[in-house]
Design goal:
Number of domains: 1
Shape: globular
Number of helices: 3
CATH topology: Aminopeptidase
Distance between the termini: 24 Å
Length: 105
């Protein structure tokens, strides 16, 4: 398994995973909406891959003071293996590099 930044080439697979994990998507979870997201803080939008398959995704945000963890999803076939914890820890380490002191889940 390895982490990497989300790219727009991942859009369809990430939307599919969010829906499979039963996340509630908003009006901004469109191709254009995520394209705008990547302009702000792309290093906080990550996917977790295993065998070239996206099995987890998380979208973090940062407003200059606080960090948010949004849209965390694990493929249901991989749930129960502490993958969510690994994704949170990876995102937290990225927030620390930006000296974010307060995280909101």
């Amino acid at each position: 398994m390895y982490f990497r930044e989300f790219t727009l080439l991942d859009f369809d697979l990430v939307i599919e995973l969010w829906e499979k994990a039963r996340l509630i998507l908003s009006f901004s979870d469109t191709y254009d909406g995520l394209k705008e997201k990547l302009k702000r803080d792309p290093k906080l939008f990550s996917v977790l891959e295993e065998d070239s398959r996206i099995i987890g995704v998380v979208m973090g945000s940062y407003d200059g003071r606080k960090g948010w963890i949004n849209h965390l999803a694990i493929d249901p076939e991989y749930q129960g293996r502490n993958i969510g914890q690994q994704i949170i820890e990876e995102l937290e380490s990225r927030f620390k590099k930006w000296a974010v002191k307060k995280l909101i889940f």
